[in-house]
Amino acid sequence: MRFSLFFVSQLLTFGLCSEESKEDINVFGQSQDGIDIDKQKGRFPDTDIDSVNMVRIGDMYYVPILAGTPPQYILTLPDTQIQTTIFADLLCINCYSGIKIWPKFSNYQSSTFKTIQRVFDRNDRYYSEYGYFGYETVSIGSKTLEKAVLDITTNMTDVPKYFYSGTRYLSTEYLIPNPSLHNVYNTGVLGLGYPLENISNDVFFSRNNSILNFLGEKKFVTIDLREDGGKFSLGLKKNTNETIVWTKPDGNAGFGFKLDSYTFANGILPLTDMTAEVNPRYEEIYMDSDIAYKINTYAIKQYPNCTGFNGKHIAAFTSGNYTLKLFPQYFMELEEGVCKSKIIPIDPRFISPKKIIFGQSFLRGNAMVLGYEEPKIGFIEKTFQDIMPAKLI
Question: Which region is the signal sequence (predicted)?
Fold first, then answer.
């Protein structure tokens, strides 16, 4: 059963948790797909790029990171809309029932965690809860440094509803995995958002704790899901025969970009004041209800049983020189014998219909580049000569 989307200003997803038991997946030794996480670290000796193989569970890809001393593996969902990295503490005894996150990290077991302040602190005769904002040793690939994180602990059944991340309120339900998947597993969130500026120091999470600290001179992050095994890279990771096509930025301090038009059923329709973001924190694609209805109706009519995909895209959105194509094999899925779409109408009560969020249902089959020198997002493609058909001689 799909959940209702509750977007406030922070574009957060609410929902129910998968009913899968804790014993069904052991992602800290081997994943469901047999991926040995202890062998995830990799380095490209001829470049300044660090890469880790992303871990696939169900239809979602996670970035494995190490945190603390001794190091503890944490599977994180990359998020392009926040700067904060979030873990749940082992002392958060009701985290699974309350905020549906598997506690793995513990600052009480780590010799490196440095508490700066309590983000929230609530006590009464029945329960207590704490949020710790501090610095922790975090490793991605071969790069290790201190990064500001949020660590949640509680001994209550009712969890805090909101906390700060920069200027935004984030709901603790933001940590809830996507309920539409049977095998979703979440132990943290890796903030990839563009750094906040001009935020006063008395605001929680106002400090610049972004992914920038992990990056070299060329400030890029690459998320490549073109192959079955995704790869997360600190740096620009592309082959020599590939080029980057950048989207048209929307002018705001973030990774949003403008959409010019969309193609559907052999027709091109202009889009006015429409912006988009790509955020692998979500699986679904969120868009205006009218556009979502047209695409979903056509897709289900073409593939009523979620079979027979021919490799062609159903709809496409243009941003500058790049075209974002929607392939049905990535956003359509058979659930209990019914073919359903992962394109979800947004609720105009909470967010403007002039906004589209592309989740992993779009990103699969693509390689995305985030540029931090100035906020921009691009996609890696083969050069024109490589995709031209061979000439007959």
Answer: 1-17
